[in-house]
Amino acid sequence: MKKIVTSGLLLAAMMALAGCGQEKKPEPAKPAAAFDLNKAKDGTYTAESSSDSYMGRGRLTVVIKDHKIVAADFVGLSPDGKVKDDTYGMTDGQIKDERKYKIAQSALKANNSYGAQLIETQKPGEVDAIAGATVSYDQFMETAQNVLEQAQK
Question: Which of 1, 26, 100, 146 could be a cystine partner for 47, CB 3.0 to 4.6 Å?
Fold first, then answer.
């Protein structure tokens, strides 16, 4: 019995210590679903998200005309600033890990859909996250908030 209790305490202590080393990321700013485009001025607005040292950052360009989002383009940028494309997830131009490459390409596909969803919904808060592209989605939401704030100035 004493052995079981000691093992349990040791396991609990190890789990607590393991959790201490994990870095918790702050929640990204999420735009309100009912952002008022009536206050937005016509124009083209661009914003970049904060950078993730591994995943890079996102850039959103939005065109507003007559209080409507008429164009929106969201792209992912690698940590070195290059636009992510069909080579995203490769190493030295080669697919070294098929699983990682597929995940990277899934995120790239999601990036391309966020702008289209924004045009369709006209509300950043109604753009759906896509599984496997959480970082991209957070970057999109951050840039959407910044772009729409610019449009109201």
Answer: 146
User: For 81-120, how does the pLDDT look when each residue is reduced to its tens digit (9 = 90+)?
Assistant: 999 999 998 988 899 999 999 988 988 888 889 999 999 9
Contact 137, 126 (CB under 8 A): no
> Is the dihedral angle over the CA atoms 65, 71, 75, 80 positive or is it negative?
negative
58 CB neighbour count, 10 Å cutoff = 28
- Across-strand partners of 43? 64
What is the C-alpha R_g of the chain?
Answer: 20
The pTM of the full predicted model, rounded to 2 decimals, is 0.75
